[in-house]
Amino acid sequence: MATVDHRGRIADRHVTAALDWVAGTRLNIREHDGLLVVTADPHGVFKPTKEGYLRLPADARRAAGLSSGDRVLLVARLDHQTVTAFPPVALDHLVLPVLPGGEDA
User: Fold this and answer.
1) Contact call for residues 25 and 48 (beta carbons, < 8 A)
2) Alpha-carbon dihedral 91, 92, 94, 97, rounded to 10 degrees
3) Distance (Å, rounded) from C-alpha 23 to C-alpha 34?
4) For the whole model, what pTM was predicted?
5) Interior CA angle at 75 toward 59 and 104, to 5°?
């Protein structure tokens, strides 16, 4: 879990380090079913910051319903050079139905 700051930076560098993404790594960022999928892409227009943080553009944050201070679950697929950010709403949809009491809890 990591926090998104007011400029869209995800306050965790462990995932980008595990993927060997450095400041020059080109990335593609897209919204898919409420999730943000970030993929290494030689034609991508986004890059990690020079400090190694992943920065989500404002359009992507809006599409996923992310605000400053929100925490996201990051899931990396090292073999696919992909990280998926699960916003709070997406986590609610995944977790609430399996909790005792279901979505009414």
Assistant:
1) yes
2) 160
3) 26
4) 0.87
5) 80
Instruction: Name the token pair of 33.
Output: 């079913």
pLDDT tens column, 63-99: 999 999 999 999 999 999 999 999 988 888 888 788 8
Which ranges of the chain would DSSP assign to H, the alpha helix? 14-18, 58-63, 88-95
**For strand 35-40 and strand 54-55, is the pairing parallel, antiparallel, or unpaired?**
unpaired
In a 3-state reduction of DSSP, which class is residue 68? coil
Compute the distance between CA of residue 97 and CA of residue 86 in angstroms, rounded to an integer.
16
Residues 99, 104, 2: CA angle, nearest 5 degrees: 55
Question: What's the rounded Cα separation, in Å, for the pair 95 and 88?
Answer: 10
Token pair for 42: 């030689």
pLDDT band at residue 51, thresholds of 50, 70 and 90? very high
